[in-house]
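Final report, results section. Input specification for complex C-07:
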Amino acid sequence: DTAVSQTPKYLVTQMGNDKSIKCEQNLGHDTMYWYKQDSKKFLKIMFSYNNKELIINETVPNRFSPKSPDKAHLNLHINSLELGDSAVYFCASSHVAGSSYNEQFFGPGTRLTVL
Amino acid sequence: QKEVEQNSGPLSVPEGAIASLNCTYSDRGSQSFFWYRQYSGKSPELIMFIYSNGDKEDGRFTAQLNKASQYVSLLIRDSQPSDSATYLCAVSNTGGFKTIFGAGTRLFVKA
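Structure output:
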């Protein structure tokens, strides 16, 4: 009964390729997020979605395009991959953003390596 | 100035001691404050949240918040080797759609 799942767990690809990461949550949450964690373990927010609507886009290059087909899914497509995109990407969800308490539940992460 | 600052450590404490982790933040409008634990190769998991000034205790963990000083801390009593992990301080704005994480403090508890 995985709460937040991501696929794939590992992704190794060449520079210039296009790839996608999928995320699903079965918690009934309204809000989903994408984070990037670099080699120094710094966890940085990329996008927030609430009920399929984009709320936060943290100056992420437009090579990154999130898509939320429904409240339970938030996918991340990356075009023209660059070496600097190598990182662990975490998907997360929370129950009710807009309230003071918004504990986030994280997926297992996708380790992306760009060669 | 970083939005959320933590001492990267590593912080090393003996088993049974108190571990004290600190965090400062820059946005005075921040509403909610969280401590997440992240084991190596794993995803972050919430251990404490606080949004009122003062102390909040949960088992061996105590979170402390001082909004005037823009300071959050986490105390771990009776530290165990299983507490060895990176502890991430996180701060949310009003609305909670944007959470800023600190770079984390690595904690080692020596048996």
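Chain B touches chain A at residues 31-32, 34, 38, 42-46, 49, 51, 86, 88, 92, 95-101, 103-104 (CB under 8 Å). The longest strand of chain B covers residues 85-92. This concludes the modelling results for the funded period.
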